[in-house]
Amino acid sequence: MRVLLLVLLDSKKRELLRLSQHSNAVRIALNRDTRYYLHWEFDAATGKYSLRW
Q: For residue 17, what are the contacts with CB-CB under 8 A and spacing of at least 6?
């Protein structure tokens, strides 16, 4: 499976960061009391993907 894009959104669904094949690592400080959302966009999905958090 190839992931085209991974986006991290805050509780108001504003974009905090964007990862792709070309930009695939970042460090960010998160608040443990805040809700976050992950948005994935896939291409050629096979049903398997690994994310290290």
A: 7, 8, 26, 28
Name residues whose C-beta falls within 8 Å of residue 41's C-beta, 6 or more positions apart in sequence. Answer: 3, 4, 5, 6
What would the two tokens of residue 7 be?
């986006």
pTM as predicted: 0.72
The CA-based angle 15-21-23, given to 5 degrees, is: 55
Q: Round to whole Å and give the CA distance between 6 and 44.
A: 15
Query: Mind listing the pLDDT tens digit for each residue in 42-53?
Result: 877 676 767 776
Percent of the chain with pLDDT over 90: 42
